[in-house]
Structures are given as C-alpha cells and as structure tokens.
Design brief:
The complex is a heterodimer of chains A (265) and B (402).
Chain A lengths: L5 H13 L1 H5 L3 H15 L5 E11 L5 E11 L7 E8 L7 E5 L7 E6 L4 E5 L15 H4 L7 E11 L2 E10 L8 E7 L5 E7 L5 E13 L3 E11 L5 E11 L10 H5 L3
Antiparallel strand pairs in A: 1-2, 1-13, 2-3, 3-4, 4-5, 5-6, 7-8, 8-9, 9-10, 10-11, 11-12, 12-13
Chain B lengths: L5 H14 L7 E15 L12 E15 L4 E12 L7 E12 L3 E8 L32 E10 L2 E8 L26 E2 L9 E10 L2 E11 L4 E7 L2 E8 L1 E13 L2 E12 L3 E13 L8 E11 L11 E10 L7 E9 L5 E11 L3 E11 L15 E9 L1
Parallel strand pairs in B: 8-12
Antiparallel strand pairs in B: 1-2, 1-21, 2-3, 3-4, 4-5, 5-6, 6-7, 7-9, 9-10, 10-13, 11-12, 13-14, 14-15, 15-16, 16-17, 17-18, 18-19, 19-20, 20-21
The chains are: A alpha+beta (265), B mainly beta (402).
Protein name (chain A): Outer membrane lipoprotein-sorting protein
Organism (chain A): Pontibacterium sinense
Keywords (chain A): Lipoprotein, Signal
C-alpha cells in the first residue's frame, strides 16, 4: 500500500479518514476490479478510431510472414465496440473483411466478407482462443477490453517500464477463453498496460505480451505503437505495430453494417 | 460477350460523368492473380472428342480500382481471361466487374457489371440467382459471369433492401466438344433460344430484403425475368446431334436463413419457381458444427451435413433432387493458412456418389498452391451426373498474387 502514488493515494487517505471501515475492507478482488474500472474509464470517449496494423509473424527458425490490416472501430455506450477490419496482406486474402459487434458478456456477432465469391458469411464467434491469421495473437487478445469479461485480484505493486505498476490477476468469465488467467501490469499514473502474462488452460505459462512506444492522442487516449507477443511453448512470436491512428473522424453505425462490409476493401 | 443494352450503357456513362473526380484526390490500386492449373484424369474419356487424359490451363484476373470523393465513389474493373490447352470453349474472356459505386447517407447505388451472391448453404447455391454460371470455368457452378445491373441498396432499421434492374442477359457457358466434364451431347451455345421476344435484352428485375435479428440472418426476394438455367433439348443440326439451350421467363421467390448458435450454424435455403410449363419448390438445408482447437492444437474441424430436395423428383432438370451431402473441413490456423476440405454427395434416388477433396496452403507471401481431387460414381444413365462417371481427376493449381 505504501507504494501507491499521488492521486490514488490521496483518495485512499481521504477515504481512510472519512470512512475507514470501507477502505480497510477493500479486498484484493475489489481493488483489482477498481483498477480495471479506472483503466477503462480513463479511455472512454474516443468515439471512433481508425488505424493500420502491421503484423510480423516469426517462427522458431526466424522465418517471417507479414499481415497488413486496416481497422475502424466505433465506441458504443453500454455495449461492446463495433469494428471493421480489412486485410491487405497476404495478398491471397486481400479484400477479405471482418465485421464484429462485440458484447461484454455472451457471444459477439461476426461476419466475414469473401471477395472472390462476393459472399458475406455470418461466422460463429465461439472461437475466441484461436489464432488470429496464424499469429500468436488469439482473437480474444485483440477484442476490446470490457470490465465484465474478467474477475480480478490485485496482487502487488511492481516496478515496470511505465514507472510503478499495479499487478492484477484477471480470470476470464467466458468458458471458451483459452486462458485460466492473465497477469497484467498497469502503471499507476496513467493506467496503461505494459505487460501481460498469459496462462493456458492447464495454468502453464503460455505467452507474454509487452507494450512499447505509447503515444497520447487528443490529450487523453494512450495507444501503444508496438505490441510484442512471445509464445514460450512454441518459440514463435508476433510483433504487432500500429500506425496512422485517427480519432473522432465521424464514423457512425452506418459504417458498420453488411453493406459497408462488402465495399470495405 | 454480349453487349449490355444501349439504355444501360447510356445510364452508366451519364452516371460516371456526373461522378467523375473533380479534385485530384483519386486513389488508384492494381492487384490480381495469375494461375496455372493442371488436371490429370484417371480414366479414358467417355465421349468422342475428349481425347486427352491431362489438361493444362492458365488464367489471369487483374483488378483495377479507383476511389474518389473520400471513398464515396469508386470504380472497379476486373477482366478475366482463361486459356485452355484442349477446350476452345473453355478458352474465354469475361468482364467479371466493371462497376461504379456511389455511397450516400443510408443508400448505395451500384451501377455496371457486377457479381452478387445470395445464400448460406455450402453444397448447393439454390437462392443465388442474379449471375449466370460460368460453366466452362469449373463444373461446380461456383464461377459466375459478370451481370450488368443497376442496384440501389437502402439501409433501414428493419433491414437492407436491394432493388435490381438487370439489363442484358448472359448466356451460360458450356464445355465444348474437346472438353471433359460434360454431358454426352455438346451444347450448341450459338443456337440459344428465348421465350421472350426481347431475347437477351429482356429487362429482369429483383427485390431482396435481408436482415439480422440477434442470432438469425435472413433474406427473402422476388426475381422476375430470364431463368439462368436453360432448358436443353436434343436437336440435329447439319448432321450433328446437339443440345440447344432455351431460356424461359420465370418468377422466383427465395428465402434463406442462418441461425448462428454457439458452434452451430443452421442453414436453410428454399425457392419457389414459376415458369411457362412448371411451378415447383426446392430446398437445401443443413448444419455446420465446428470443433475448435482439436487435440489441444490450433486446428479446427468443421463437420457439415446438408440435404437437397426438389419437388419434381427424378424428373428434375437440376442435379440435386434428393441428395445428401456430408463434409469435413480442417483448418490448421497456421501461418500458411493450410486447409483441407472433403465433401461427399450421395444421390438417394439414383444411388450415385461424388467425392471432392481440396487441400490448399500459402507459400511465401504471394503464392498459393491447391490440390483438388474429384471422383464420381454414377452408373444410372437417368442420373445427370452419370456423364461425369469417367471424369475422375486430380487438379493441381498454383496461383501467384500481385
């Protein structure tokens, strides 16, 4: 507790003074939850976002494979985000597009557009634990963070690249998740994630994701330019870099329907 | 390729001129693929003229794309050319797409030659009616010819409504005398006949509503115009016995539904077709279930079962009238997108079977290789598939994307 820094500390002191019983009663579970709620709250209000993703997949031998994806997302109050992704590379899947309406609890709604057949296909979204485009990122690693998706337990404070971090353990609520738990490092000043350790269904260490080169947009929203995922069990890794971030460009629901999916390219 | 009607051409020209970029903010992109395809047949041919056991074929499909007005206007041009070693009919060119799309607030206008897909099932595409089948490209009916159209699409809270004007009918392509994978008689495409006096200039129309309600995606439509499936009648022309295609007028109502429930996809397609001499129902229905992460790996296994039915029974002009389909799809979800697909069709009336196996993976960033095996067993001469009985083959395809 004594490692807690400024804003939270003063809040806690105030709380201790005014309502000592409540503050003292905060369990590690409640604290873990409070940290995640705060982290989500600090990023609210981005409205809509566009960015380009570049993935470099590396196998154990160091062979590389490239993925290029353009992405648009829309913030939905009271529900999960909507997103539309278009694949540019590899070239055999160029023009393939993916529309997703995510929900904090329950299955997401997902459609895939196959340009060669001009076919829109509703797909089952149960496959959260599957690899995204053959990379070390699972679908669930790329979906929007919603507080309801996990239960929490605050573990300790720890030094991290962003200063001092809370270390919070997160337990997926969804039984289809590929993880028993995630260990997450969030810095105490801005509540940005710096590192996640993933544990597989047998609770063995599976992957580590680290976040690099944070940039702040519109004076509020922090986004990492580079995310590195390493799979400890296979020796494979994926670097996911982001560029051309744009916020509040005026996207709306009409940019996220089956018609916009078909012409996404 | 037949020319689109003058009305249509004038409309397209006027539309394009009105929408042509005024500012220099035009985005251009060229992409596409070239491919070589080798078929090896395991048996000697059934019919005269088909004197080859292997066949080499090349095709190219570039795509040119322009976008302006911040993406509210775009033009796509996709020509297609195939050159075939043996079948002169299979050597052919087509414009798969030459279309201008304008996007409004809650509507889209799509004008030009395009392809439209409707439906949800995998083994037969019953409700998919807008485009003509490019029958020479492959025998599975999945390849389509570009269709001239004006398509207004309206987005409403209660669904998407698509209105179609379809000027300029495309005749189906058929395998020529030298080609394998055809019936005993060759179709004389130069002698095509029509019920309508407007012939291929008949203006077809269609209206379709589609919507998503929770776990359900559904669509319904009415099509009025030229039946894409020709009636084939035997005729003797200058000493040769051939099949002559006749295209009649039809009204067709179609309905398709998919329920996406956890790992299950439940699918139904049904049509009611009314022509000058018959009216009938047909349906295709089934499910797809996926086992994710089999054996603690990243691989998924999908299992498919579908049944196809046609009210006309054994007299049906369609290949599917009382047929059961079973399929399996293994997706490795690896970096090279390795996939294996197998499907078995069983005709419950004629006791014929077909087996199709497809395997594909990517090599490097721009190459894709696939191996397909197609095997037929259809001994009943009344079974339309019996013509393919000796056409078992392996097909090796290598595609280069650019």
């Amino acid at each position: 507790m004594n490692l807690l820094i400024n804003p939270l500390k003063s809040v806690l002191i105030a709380a201790l003074v005014s309502a000592p019983m409540v503050a003292l009663a905060e369990t590690p579970e409640e604290k873990g939850m409070a940290i995640s709620v705060e982290s989500k709250k600090r990023d609210l209000g981005w409205q809509d976002m566009q960015a380009e993703m570049n993935m470099v997949l590396r196998n154990k031998q160091g062979q590389e494979s490239i993925r290029e994806i353009r992405m648009k997302s829309l913030e939905i109050n009271g529900d999960g985000d909507k997103s539309l992704s278009v694949f540019d590379k590899p070239r055999d899947v160029k023009g393939t597009a993916f529309l997703s309406f995510s929900h904090p609890v329950g299955a997401d709604d997902q459609w895939l557009y196959l340009p060669a057949l001009k076919r829109v296909k509703r797909i089952a979204s149960r496959n959260k634990s599957g690899p995204f485009m053959g990379s070390e990122f699972a679908y669930e690693d790329l979906s929007s963070f919603e507080v309801e998706k996990y239960t929490y337990k605050y573990l300790r404070d720890d030094a991290c690249e962003g200063g001092t971090c809370f270390v919070v353990e997160q337990y997926p609520v969804d039984k289809n998740s590929g993880y028993t738990r995630r260990l997450v490092w969030l810095d105490q000043s801005e509540y940005r994630i710096w590192k996640i350790d993933f544990f597989d269904r047998k609770n063995s260490p599976l992957k580590t994701l680290t976040y690099h080169d944070y940039q702040q947009y519109l004076g509020k929203h922090w986004r990492s330019d580079l995310m590195k995922m390493v799979n400890h069990q296979t020796g494979k890794s994926t670097d996911l870099s982001w560029k051309s971030y744009q916020f509040k460009t005026g996207l709306s629901d009409k940019d996220f329907n089956k018609n916009s999916l078909k012409r996404a390219r | 390729m037949r020319k689109p009607s003058t009305l249509f051409k004038t409309g397209l020209t006027a539309g394009l001129l009105a929408a042509l970029p005024v500012q220099a903010e035009t985005y251009f992109e060229a992409s596409g693929k070239v491919a070589a395809e080798l078929r090896g047949f395991t048996q000697d041919a059934q019919f005269s003229g088909q004197d080859h056991d292997s066949n080499l074929s090349f095709y190219v499909e570039p795509e040119f794309f322009w976008e302006w007005n911040d993406g509210d206007d775009s033009l796509t041009f996709t020509p297609y050319l195939r050159v075939d070693e043996n079948d002169s009919e299979r050597t052919h060119a087509d414009i798969r797409e030459l279309s201008w799309v304008h996007v409004g607030e809650d509507w889209e206008l799509r004008t030009g030659i395009r392809k439209v897909f409707w439906g949800v099932t995998e083994f037969q595409h019953l409700v998919d009616v807008i485009n003509q089948t490019d029958g020479v490209d492959d025998f599975d009916g999945e390849d389509k010819l570009g269709q001239p159209m004006v398509n207004l699409s309206l987005v409403r809270d209660w669904g998407i409504v698509d209105l179609f004007l379809l000027p300029g009918f495309r005749e189906r392509t058929f395998t020529g005398t030298e080609g394998r994978l055809r019936g005993g008689l060759v179709v004389d495409t130069d002698s095509a006949e029509y019920e309508s006096s407007a012939e291929e200039k008949h203006l077809d129309t269609a209206i379709r509503w589609s919507h998503t309600l929770g776990d359900f995606d559904l669509g319904a439509y009415w099509f009025h115009g030229t039946n894409r499936d020709p009636e084939l009648s035997v005729r003797t022309q200058s000493g040769n016995t051939v099949l002559v295609p006749r295209y009649v007028q039809m009204d067709q109502l179609g309905f398709d539904l998919q329920a996406t429930l956890d790992s299950w996809l439940w699918k139904v397609e049904t049509i009611w077709r009314d022509t000058e001499k018959e009216e009938y129902f047909a349906a295709q229905a089934g499910f797809e279930y996926t086992f994710y992460g089999i054996q603690d790996s990243n691989a998924d296994l999908g299992v498919l079962l579908e049944y196809g039915w046609d009210e006309r029974g054994e007299d049906a002009s369609s290949n599917v009238q009382n047929d059961l389909f079973f399929g399996g799809r293994i997706t490795l979800n690896d970096a090279s997108s390795t996939e294996l697909l197998a499907g078995i069709g069983h005709d419950l009336d004629f006791d014929g079977q077909s087996l199709i196996v497809e395997a594909s993976r990517r090599y490097g960033d721009n190459w894709k290789v696939s191996i397909d095996g197609r095997f037929f067993s259809a001994d009943d001469p009344r079974d339309l598939a019996s013509a393919l009985d000796k056409d078992d083959h392996l097909q090796f395809t290598i595609e280069r994307y650019f």
